[in-house]
Amino acid sequence: MMMTFDSLDAWWWPFLFILIAGWLPTDGWRLLGVYLAGHIREDSELLVLSRTLATALVAAVIAKLVLYPEGALAGSPLWLRLSAMVLGFAVYMTTGRKVYRGVIAGEALLVGGLWWMGG
Which of these ranges, 20-24, 81-85, 94-98, has the smallest mean pLDDT? Predict the structure, then answer.
């Protein structure tokens, strides 16, 4: 039997599925990264390439979520998603590059905007 997102009807299954599917594929790479971090020069071309690719992947995921959302986010207007993204980035840049502050600001605008619009 193949395990899929819809395999079980239990309320906790989607959370466990996401945890396992998100953790297992990345944890090995994280451990390898931790091991190699002490063995690679900070200015090496390999590390610069890795940072560039990681940044590009994160930017692509954010762009997909904002421009082509699925699920509950698809019901929100584009202007609200773009505003939340811009605010989050602005807060991140102006408050000492603290990721959690940018995320909280963007989420607050998105949730507040959806609440204000009644949906």
Answer: 20-24
Q: How far apart are CA 51 and CA 45, in angstroms?
A: 10
- Residue 21 covered by a domain: no
109 assigned to some structural domain: yes
How far CA 100 is from CA of 9, 59, 95, 114, in Å, comes to 33, 17, 10, 21
Looking at residue 74, the DSSP 8-state letter turns out to be G
Q: What global pTM score does this model have?
A: 0.65
User: What amino acid is encoded at 113 in this protein?
Assistant: G
Extract the runs of DSSP E, i.e. beta strands, from 28-88: none
Question: In whole numbers, what is the pLDDT of the chain averaged over residues?
Answer: 89
